[in-house]
Amino acid sequence: MITRFTGNVWKYGDNIDTDVIFPGKYAYQKMEPGEMAKHALEDLDPEFINKVKEGDILVAGKNFGMGSSREQAAAAVKYAGIRVIIAKSFARIYFRNAINAGMPAIKSPEAVEAIENGDEVTVDMQKGEIITPRGTFTFPPYPRTVMDILDNDGLINYIKAKIEK
Residue 103: which CATH number? Predict the structure, then answer.
């Protein structure tokens, strides 16, 4: 179980919709994870995929993931290397899709205000802490079942593990 993540921040603004996270023109194409990752945030930040590193952290403003219920929007940033998303708020369906994909999505408006693009940030899932250069911010830790889904790298793997027991 990995419960502590440290990475560099990619920070974006409010109302980033699923079409910006993973463009709809690719939604009906069968893609392997690596190909899907190549299109993550391409319309918002064309350099993102060339510079993102495994374990980086995405930080956003209000209503991150608004728009369609496109599951690829959560998967694409994960496959690109993002380990955690911190936002002021999430669109309800995007939040659930992120958890289902095995990607922690943390609501913390105070942390988002303090974090700057490029900062190194640590997230401790067990303690419910976001440690930034400008302070430590708390969030309610996830319930055990949600942590189990994240520990199994997503809902499908979690269900498979339950069936196999």
Answer: 3.20.19.10
